[in-house]
Each structure stands twice: as C-alpha cells, then as structure tokens.
Amino acid sequence: MSDLDRHDTIRAVHWRGDRLSLLDQRLLPFEERFVDCRSAAEVAQAIKDLVVRGAPAIGIAAAWGVVLAAQQDAATLDSAVRTLRASRPTAVNLMWALDRMLGLGSDVAALTAEAQAIQDEDLAANRHMGELGAALLAGGGVLTHCNTGSLATAGFGTALGVIRSGYAAGKISQVYAGETRPWLQGARLTMFELVRDGIPATLIADSAAAHLMRSGAVQWVIVGADRIAANGDTANKIGTYQLAISARHHGVKFMVVAPSSTVDMATADGAAIEIELRDTTELLSMAGKRTVVEGAQAWNPVFDVTPASLIDAIVTERGVIEHPDRHAMARLFTPGQH
Ligand SMILES: CSC[C@H]1O[C@H](OP(=O)(O)O)[C@H](O)[C@@H]1O
C-alpha cells in the first residue's frame, strides 16, 4: 500500500447491502460510532443532523438512500427522493446525485450499481485532483478551512486531498487548519485526519487567519466547495469569503478544490445560491453547553459565497481553471449542466 493509499482508510459512508452505515461525525474525534440507516427517510435525517456531512459525502449517502427506497417499496421512490433532496439546500452534489439516480427508474440492481459508481468516481476524482492541485504548490505553509477530507467524501478528500498529495510530494511544510466555528469541522475533523496521517498540522482560531497570513507563514489557502456557479463564484463553509479577502490583501494564493459534481452551470452566479441557515443553538452553545445568556438572538448561516475574482485556481478532476470566470468555466463545463 503506497504512502498515499494509507490516507483514505477513514470511510464516512459504508453500504452494507440492506442498510447504510454512517460514521457519526457529531461524535468525532473522541468517539467512533456508526449510525445505521435502513430507509431514505433515515438517510435524509442523518444528512440534516450532520451525522454525515461534506458536499460529496451527502450526495453519496443520498444515492444509497434511493437504493434503500427502491429495495423497500418502489412506489415510494419519488417521495423518498423529494425527502432526500430537501435535507440540505446548498451542496449541489446532493441534487446532482439524486438526478443521476432518478434517471434509472426503480430497478434495484441498476440503482445499486449507480450509487457504487458515484462513490467510486468520487474517490478517483479526489486522487486526481490531489495531483493536479499539488502541482500548483511550491513549498511553504497552507491554510485550510472546515473539513474536506475522507470524512467529507468517498475518501482522500478534495482540498485535504491536495494537502495530502502536496505533503507527500514535499511541497507543503506546514498545514494550518481553522477551527471552523460553530460546528468545529476543522478542530474536530480535519485535525483528526491530519494527525492520524502524521501530517504536521496546527490548529488556529478562525479569527487568527488574517494575522497568520500577515506573518508570511502561508503561501496558499486551500478550501473545498459546496456549489460552484457558472461564473466561478463559490459557496463554501461560512468564513471562506473572509479568508479569500484576507488572502488577496496579503498576496496569498486562494485555491478551491471540488469535483465536477459540485459545479452547477445552471446557476449563473453566487447570488443565486441558497445559503443554509441552521439552528441558532449551534451558535449559542458549545458541546451541548449553553455559552450565551438566555434571551440572546443569533444568526447562523453556515455557508458564504466567495466571488470568482478572489479565487486564483479552481481544481476539478476535469482540470484546473486559473483566474476563473464564466468563459473559463465554459471551457471545461457545459453551460446549463447541473
Ligand atoms: C469536500 S466537503 C465540501 C464542503 O462541505 C462542508 O460543509 P458541511 O460540513 O456543512 O457539510 C464544507 O463547506 C466543505 O468545504
């Protein structure tokens, strides 16, 4: 097993033939427990509750949810797909995967093969993007945000896949990970993956990012995506937009890494991307303990949109788009493709 092969040993999504086992990411890094989903409705609830999260991973989970629906009662397939589609609004991978499954009717064998293909294609795409993104690096430190690793995908990761490949190629000397409040995907999940891989990783507070960039310790900010519009505007975890502003101000390069299942050519620009608002309790408490006075209000958008003008490169498995705009996107993706 190559050094890189070791890195996708973490699997967030396991198809068991009659149920879908999901590594419960609400409990990581201190507890590794699986939630078994035996229906599309249970998969949809797991996506909504962030048992499984990460744009590619929720698309993969939803695809297996369609298989569960077909196994149980083909007559309920359409309503099962509607329930899955409504589970989270921003990551287009969810809609993309369901559209791929819908085209196959209710044949369980065909749906099973398609769900497996979606999962296998994602892992292959991540490894290829890892190489393409690593080729852009020239040493030094990188900063990443949220979690874009094996836990958010079929394995290896998108932005974290570039970091894995870049580190293995000697092109990264230090990885900084933002904690990513309020759900702490960076602190709880990315640090878990990097420490497990033996990659030198330093956790920073989200609010320390600009100060870190000003120090000169970071040459690239490398992030994932939940939806990339036809002009290259990119929706990603809340806090990404301000990282892009800080990066441009400090002369730090900004890379978005995402498979083509994240590209939504049917959405013209970032203004049209729906931003998920989650329960304010995620902001008003930490680890289940309230941290804010009763009666306080909160606002909890969990994604934001980075304009293409602040992105130096979008890495997909179809190729790298440098200085993205609608013309550059159209060279790799069909207008209107979703
Ligand atoms: C390769 S994961 C893409 C994306 O998904 C994460 O969001 P969430 O944890 O809420 O599902 C985050 O935005 C990642 O960058």
TrEMBL record:
<dbReference type="InterPro" id="IPR000649">
    <property type="entry name" value="IF-2B-related"/>
</dbReference>
<comment type="function">
    <text>Catalyzes the interconversion of methylthioribose-1-phosphate (MTR-1-P) into methylthioribulose-1-phosphate (MTRu-1-P). Also catalyzes the interconversion of 5-deoxyribose 1-phosphate and 5-deoxyribulose 1-phosphate. Part of a bifunctional DHAP-shunt salvage pathway for SAM by-products.</text>
</comment>
<feature type="active site" description="Proton donor">
    <location>
        <position position="226"/>
    </location>
</feature>
<dbReference type="InterPro" id="IPR037171">
    <property type="entry name" value="NagB/RpiA_transferase-like"/>
</dbReference>
<keyword id="KW-0413">Isomerase</keyword>
<feature type="site" description="Transition state stabilizer">
    <location>
        <position position="146"/>
    </location>
</feature>
<comment type="similarity">
    <text>Belongs to the EIF-2B alpha/beta/delta subunits family. MtnA subfamily.</text>
</comment>
<keyword id="KW-0486">Methionine biosynthesis</keyword>
<dbReference type="InterPro" id="IPR011559">
    <property type="entry name" value="Initiation_fac_2B_a/b/d"/>
</dbReference>
<dbReference type="Pfam" id="PF01008">
    <property type="entry name" value="IF-2B"/>
</dbReference>
<feature type="binding site">
    <location>
        <position position="185"/>
    </location>
    <ligand>
        <name>substrate</name>
    </ligand>
</feature>
<feature type="binding site">
    <location>
        <position position="88"/>
    </location>
    <ligand>
        <name>substrate</name>
    </ligand>
</feature>
<comment type="pathway">
    <text>Amino-acid biosynthesis; L-methionine biosynthesis via salvage pathway; L-methionine from S-methyl-5-thio-alpha-D-ribose 1-phosphate: step 1/6.</text>
</comment>
<dbReference type="GO" id="GO:0019509">
    <property type="term" value="P:L-methionine salvage from methylthioadenosine"/>
</dbReference>
<dbReference type="GO" id="GO:0046523">
    <property type="term" value="F:S-methyl-5-thioribose-1-phosphate isomerase activity"/>
</dbReference>
<protein>
    <recommendedName>
        <fullName>Methylthioribose-1-phosphate isomerase</fullName>
        <ecNumber>5.3.1.23</ecNumber>
    </recommendedName>
</protein>
<feature type="binding site">
    <location>
        <begin position="53"/>
        <end position="55"/>
    </location>
    <ligand>
        <name>substrate</name>
    </ligand>
</feature>
<feature type="binding site">
    <location>
        <begin position="236"/>
        <end position="237"/>
    </location>
    <ligand>
        <name>substrate</name>
    </ligand>
</feature>
<dbReference type="InterPro" id="IPR027363">
    <property type="entry name" value="M1Pi_N"/>
</dbReference>
<dbReference type="InterPro" id="IPR005251">
    <property type="entry name" value="IF-M1Pi"/>
</dbReference>
<keyword id="KW-0028">Amino-acid biosynthesis</keyword>
<dbReference type="InterPro" id="IPR042529">
    <property type="entry name" value="IF_2B-like_C"/>
</dbReference>
